[in-house]
Structure formats: C-alpha cells, structure tokens
Specification:
The complex is a heterodimer of chains A (176) and B (295).
Chain A: H1 6-13, H2 20-28, H3 30-47, H4 59-70, H5 79-96, H6 107-117, H7 122-148, H8 153-175
Chain B: H1 2-20, E1 26-34, E2 40-44, E3 47-55, E4 59-67, E5 72-76, E6 80-85, E7 96-104, E8 108-113, E9 117-121, E10 125-129, E11 134-139, E12 143-147, E13 152-165, E14 170-182, E15 188-202, E16 207-223, E17 228-232, E18 238-244, E19 249-251, E20 259-260, E21 267-272, E22 278-284, E23 289-293
Parallel strand pairs in B: 2-6, 2-8, 3-7, 3-9, 8-10, 9-11, 10-12, 11-13, 12-13, 13-14, 14-15, 15-16, 16-17, 16-22, 17-23, 18-22, 19-23
Antiparallel strand pairs in B: 1-4, 4-7, 5-6, 18-21, 20-21
The chains are: A mainly alpha (176), B mainly beta (295).
Chain lengths: 176, 295
C-alpha cells in the first residue's frame, strides 16, 4: 500500500480537499490518519505560540552557519536541501508572525532572500523573490489600511489569509 | 522535374536522419518495463523537456536524448518506477535531456523539473516545476500542477484539479468538478463547465472566470490588486456577493448599480438571478471587479 506523501498529509491537515483517491486512502488508513492528527495538533500548538518572540539579534547567523556547514552544495531536489530550506522558511514565517512591524519588506526581505541563497538553487530563490516581493508589498499595504480602520474585520481576515498564503508559497519552495 | 523531386526527397531524408540522430556527445535513452495499470511513476528531469503520454498498455516506456554525461537512473517494479537525472552527480550543471515517456492510463505520475517544459496527455498526477511551462490535456482522474515562473495551460476533463502558479499565466479549460487555482502575478483564466466548486485567486494578476457552475455549487474569486472579471452566461442561476475593499465594481451584466463601501471606500454588489442558485463570492482589496455577460 502506498501511503500519502508529505504534501498530501499537509493538505489534509490544512483542511483542504484531497483528490478522491487520496481521500479514500485516508479514510481507510489508520497510519495516515494518525499522521494527519499529529500535524493538525502541531499546527494548533504553533497557532497558540505568542505573536511576538524575543530572540537574541545574533541567533540567526548561528543557525545559518550551522546549516551552511552541513549544506555546501546547492541542490534543488534533495530532501536535505528541502529541510534546510524549510528551517530558514520557518524562521521567515515566525518573522511574519511578529506583528505589523515585522512584515518583511525592503531590507528585511532581502536579508531573508540572501539567507535562502545559501540554501537553495539560484533559480528557485530568484523565482521565489519575485513572488515574495509582491506578497510583502500587499501585506504592508493591508497593514497600513488596517491601522487606519482598526475595526475592519474583512481587512484583518485578508491579512491573515495573505500570511497563510505566503507561508504556503514558502512551503511549496521547500517541497520543490 | 522528376529528378528534382528525387533529389529533394533524398536531401530531406538525409536531413531527417541528421536531426533525429543524437548529436555528437549525445546519448540515446531507451528503457521499458511491464507495470501494473495503477502503478506509481516518479520522474526527475531538471532541464530540457518532458513529454508524458498515457497509453492503453500496462507498461512503461521511456525514450530520450541527452548529453553523454547526463547521469540517467532507472529503477522499479510492477507497482512503481522511478527514473530521471541524478542531480547529485551533475556537479551543478543541469544536462538538457529530452524525455518522452509512455505510462499506463491508470497510473499516477509525479514529475518534477527545474526549467524543463512538461507536456502531459491523459496521465493523472502531480507535476511541478520551477520555471518550465506546463501543458496538460486529456481526461484525467486528478491533476495537480505547481509552477513558480512558468506558464500552465490545462485543457482537461477531470473531477479534481489543483493549479498553483507564480509569475506565469495559468489558463484552464474543460470540464472540471472541483477546481482550485492561483497565481501571484500571472494572469489566471478559467473557461470551465460542470463545476461543483471553483476557487480562483491571484495577487496582482488579472483573473477571468467563465465558469458554468452546478446549481448547488459555489465559485470563489479573490485578488489583492488584479482585475477580476466574472463572466456569467445570461441563463446563469447564481447568487452573487461581490466586495472590493478599496477598488471599484463595474456591473456590465445588467442595469443594477453597485453600492459604495463603508466610509465611501471600496464598493459592494449583491444580486441574484436565482436566490437558490449557485453561490458566487468575489473579493478584492483594490482590484476592480467587472461583472459581465458571457456569450
């Protein structure tokens, strides 16, 4: 029996619709159900984390140095490259979650991309940079709008949605 | 005249022979194996081109050309196979390999490329690329396409389709029951029939939806800054709820006028050709929403 891939387990944990054949497998497979439950629980725990995380300024260079030491070669399609990239992306996502002031953009986004350059193939970083720039500009725009209309639930919802989509984009890159 | 024709044919034959033969330093790939009709097939071809064709035989056939140094690998059994270019051995330079792959109709393919184009005919599966263009046709059980930079062109009959694009344009045609597609900056165009559920999203790319939805179905369109064009057939039975937070709404479907949004910002527009009809929700931040009549 072929179990669901990580991408499909992710999709199920996100609550998105699976292809009929995958949904059928998930209904019948206890092992995959357990994995989805674990992922969902992990998401819940992540969501419960504080919005602002105080870290030492010099934490990232250390993490980056450690990853870089292990990953000298730039590969696109290896799981270790994917994991290293995912680590960087997780940090990127935490940065997004740090509130309006922490929305990556300008200098901060370029730092994020510079770090990714050390981990992923240039072609991937290049492709992602253009999309991230658009997401970040949109986020800044929405944050500014929300600041002037604090009770606008629609805009708050859009911001949350955008953050989720940006994280999904980063996940797509880490899976590629 | 006859001599001229013969010379022409000879020249053409010689030219074809030269163009079909692997060039100097090139190698020919030719592999095959018997497989189950529902086998799982994984393909890795970073650069060049990849054509995947579903056929009625329970076997896998791989043919292609590439540079001699391209580290091609191939393995598997009846239930699954994995083949392609072993990237770890390419030392950074991606060989341009042209692959043509025949797979059983019922198989499930997962193919990844960096900049290689992907062309699929009738093979269900998951196709992902960084910057290659993707084209998929045929009747499929399921389809998932992801491309960060390339264009995706999908013309299928399928119950379930997911397409995630970035900068490239995404064009979708055919009969699709459950459809979700998105781009970042690329144009997203959907001309689809028989949808029970369709969710289309862009960030800045223009979005055109001409989706014939089932009476109890739903369509969701969303864009941050792209223009969203909702095309409805005159006999559509829909309940439309459109809102733009800071943009405009232009109703060309009938004479009703959209209303200004809260505090004079943005606009909203709600109308129903049938209150019990399919639910259509359109949202933008600042992209203009255009509602228009289809042919």
């Amino acid at each position: 029996m072929t179990h669901l891939t990580d991408e499909l387990l992710d999709t199920a944990a996100d609550g998105d619709t699976l292809a009929p054949v995958d949904a059928e497998h998930l209904r019948a497979c206890v092992e995959c159900q357990a994995k989805v439950e674990r992922l969902s629980a992990l998401r819940g725990q992540l969501a419960a984390l504080p919005q602002t995380v105080a870290t030492d300024d010099d934490l990232w260079p250390g993490v980056h140095g450690a990853i870089r030491a292990r990953r000298r070669r730039r590969l696109v399609f290896t799981s270790s490259a994917g994991l290293a990239l995912a680590a960087a992306l997780l940090i990127a996502v935490v940065r997004i979650g740090n509130g309006p002031d922490a929305v990556p953009g300008g200098a901060e986004a370029s730092v994020e991309l510079a770090e990714l350059k050390a981990l992923a193939a240039p072609v991937v970083v290049e492709a992602m940079a253009a999309s991230l720039t658009i997401y970040d500009a949109a986020l800044r725009e929405l944050e500014a709008f929300a600041a002037s209309e604090r009770d606008n639930a629609d805009v708050q919802q859009r911001i949350e949605e955008l953050r989720r989509k940006r994280a999904a984009l980063l996940r797509l890159v880490s899976n590629s | 005249m006859r001599r001229l024709t013969r010379s022409f044919i000879l020249a053409l034959t010689a030219l074809s022979a030269v163009s079909l033969a692997p060039s100097v330093g090139a190698t020919q790939i030719r592999r095959g194996m018997a497989m189950d009709s529902n086998a799982v097939i994984k393909i890795w071809n970073p650069s060049g081109s990849l054509r995947i064709i579903a056929w009625k035989h329970d076997s896998l056939h791989v043919e292609g050309t590439g540079p001699k140094w391209a580290p091609f690998f191939f393995g598997g059994g009846r239930s699954g196979a994995k083949f392609g270019i072993e990237e770890e051995k390419t030392k950074g330079e991606l060989p341009r390999v042209m692959l043509v792959v025949h797979v059983p109709f019922g198989s499930r393919v997962s193919a990844k490329t960096v900049d290689a184009t992907i062309e699929v005919a009738g093979a269900s599966g998951y196709y992902t690329t960084v910057s290659g263009d993707v084209r998929v046709t045929g009747a499929l059980r399921e389809l998932q396409v992801e491309s960060l930079r390339g264009a995706s062109d999908v013309e299928v009959r399928a119950p379930w389709v997911r397409i995630m694009g970035g900068e490239g344009d995404v064009t979708i045609r055919g009969a699709i029951e459950d459809l979700a597609a998105s781009t970042v900056a690329g144009r997203l165009t959907a001309d689809v029939t028989g949808a029970a559920r369709a969710r289309l999203e862009t960030m800045t790319g223009a979005l055109t939806s001409h989706v014939a939805v089932q009476p109890n179905g739903s369509i969701e369109l969303d864009s941050h800054a792209g223009t969203v064009e909702l095309v409805l057939d005159p006999n559509s039975r829909v309940d439309v709820d459109a809102t733009s937070v800071a943009g405009k709404i232009d109703n060309q479907f009938d004479k009703r006028r959209p209303l200004p949004g809260r505090g004079g910002k943005g606009m909203s527009f709600n109308f129903a050709t049938d209150p019990a009809g399919a639910r259509v929700v359109v949202r933008t931040y600042k992209g203009t929403i255009v509602v228009k009549k289809g042919a």
